[in-house]
């Protein structure tokens, strides 16, 4: 993995932190610490920000060709270190190795490649009437990334920031920081110019707050909980910096009466349980016709009972543990609330799966007869917990789907694509997966309402790192 766990990366070099306060990094499968990181201070963040500000003057003026060549080198080294990256992700947040190698490492690579492809053809200048309108890098950006999909979020922020000519300071999650250290080694080996990319570990209250509030940070891009996103926005308000946020979700999965239920329910349940339920866009609320709820329950129960919970490094494991003791306790409490509030427990429930006495493992859990007023239907659980909500009409299904403070993702399945799209247009969410379709790295990712603002991925994510300038006047 990384040789620099106790160091930060500032101005093109690995440096000793100002403080020697360390934090244990735990393997959630064993509940044992396997390494340490140093917690950064305000002064460490200030040094990194100063380096990024200094580097912006020259890096912002680099040519398209120079930035293409830089990103190509980053992609090449990332591929070379993919094994180390998969090992780091699996160890720090519990993803099965198969998932870490494919989905986790692959997502980071995909976003870097996507930023490179957009850069090759993007039109930074356009003429409107006789005015030159140009797009320029927004400036120094603070990047704050989460533990649940660490490389997905690092890749979709660093890639477009580099491509557009921004300089940056990354603060990876202190829960899952080792992948961020490996990524930083990749950036160094790829020859990113000094000060363009900086990395400081630390907690949100210290380093995260400093990045959000510092006057020399022009933009902060944050992915995490809605609660933390609100704090970031408040900290950023005094300096009127741009804030891009990808926050929580409680995504509805509407299965319409003309859908293939075996396929739709199976896919929906697997998607909910995938990554141990730790995805902001997971389809956690399955909305089904009331008169077919028992059929749905039988299919979903089968998926849960076939889900193999176990050691992330063991062959055949479907899902590993959740990432931390805090997450484990929160999920257990919410499962118990579901039972207390009268939801029907179909399978799973409190406690660890049979045979697993250590590790932050959660039993794949399904509730039926859930109403949208229940806590399990309103709060983001972030674990392998599926709520089945019966509806009596399509209108009611749409009403339930939209009855949430969130609006990140959603899902609609129908035997008729046009029918599905008509329903999809009425859902107040930034994304709709129709008939089991996956995401598209070239299309925008982001949400409505308290799921955030701004967009990531592809050209739309690229443009979040650009300012628009009008140059009036002509001969």
From TrEMBL:
Gene3D superfamilies: Aldehyde Dehydrogenase, Chain A, domain 1, Aldehyde Dehydrogenase, Chain A, domain 2. InterPro entries: Ald_DH/histidinol_DH, Ald_DH_C, Ald_DH_CS_CYS, Ald_DH_N, Aldehyde_DH_dom. Its EC number is 1.2.1.3. The keyword Oxidoreductase applies. The keyword Metal-binding does not apply. It comes from the Bacteria. Signal peptide: none annotated. Keywords: Oxidation, Oxidoreductase. GO terms for molecular function: aldehyde dehydrogenase (NAD+) activity. Residues 14-470 form the Aldehyde dehydrogenase domain. It catalyses: an aldehyde + NAD(+) + H2O = a carboxylate + NADH + 2 H(+). Belongs to the aldehyde dehydrogenase family. This is aldehyde dehydrogenase (NAD(+)). It comes from Phreatobacter stygius.
